Amino acid sequence: MTACDEKPLMQVVDVKKYFPVSSGKTLENKMLRAVDGVSFNVKYGETFGLVGESGCGKSTLAKTILKLTKPTDGSVHFEGNNIYKMSKNEFQKVRREMQIVFQDPYDSLNPRMTLEEIIAEPFIIHKVPQGEREKRIRELFDQVGLSEKLLKRYPHQLSGGQRQRLSIARSLALYPKLVVCDEAVSALDVSIQAQILNLLLDLKDEFNLTYIFITHNISVAKFMSDKIGVMYLGRLVESAPKRELFENCLHPYTHALLSAVPNPYVSKQRVLLKGDIPSLVNPPIGCAFHERCNYRKDICKEMIPQLTEVKDNHYVACHMAGKLNLNLSIL
Ligand code: SF4
User: Fold this and answer.
1) Are 146 and 195 in contact (CB under 8 A)?
2) What pTM value is reported for the model?
3) Which of these, 139, 151, 166, 216, has the minimum number of CB atoms within 10 Å of its CB?
């Protein structure tokens, strides 16, 4: 399959993930709505960037769509098959085609294993013969820019960039079709971030990969993605092809995020958001963004706006979509 194929590799449909939280005083059980009805498609060969502030539910969404945590509701179709309905054995075959690279490589690497043992693990689990395994380990090290001399070292003997290269190598071991990069460069120095981002772009071409690229940095999402979804308080509020989003955003929250992107050549007026992000346990009634929105109307305090296609491939969840005079010249 190539990027030109229109068929989605993954369809995420109304996925929800709630966590029960009990309040000590009243013993009343409430729900923390970390992901509250998220839907999007990712086509073969595409990079879908998922952007939002810390705590908006991006990482929980990543784990839920890969079935690393049990979903509360919804469905995820991978190559047309609902992975939430698969048996353990059926899902085991699909699991190797969907991989994840986490934010902090150190947390996801066993400190007692050598790099060679870490990379060999997926091959052993999936019963790849030893001769082929050793050849693939050396190939992978070369492909992610790690020297073979490091094979007998331990994770703590590596730099942050080397550890992230190792995580990427491990995620590619079984030739996945989809890789979810969850804040994969956030813990790295800026110069190393650029190297890892370029490596991910090279590997995408080499391995014909599809990415879901999760980041709090909308500039990084712009560099990596074909299409971008913006999350706020567990929901997608806007989603569009990258250029369309940057030139014609329609949601006030996206507008505020884009106004904060630094541009050394243009002095920009930043849209400052008032107040804090509301609690995921007690989200505001109506539009979750209404307490911070400069454009709210009465309806915004009463009804939740649904994600609706307002232009070709441009989806927005705002009662006032298309009627607001957002100053796009500041973007
Ligand atoms: Fe603002 Fe209302 Fe749109 Fe929410 S629905 S973003 S409060 S205008």
Assistant:
1) no
2) 0.91
3) 139
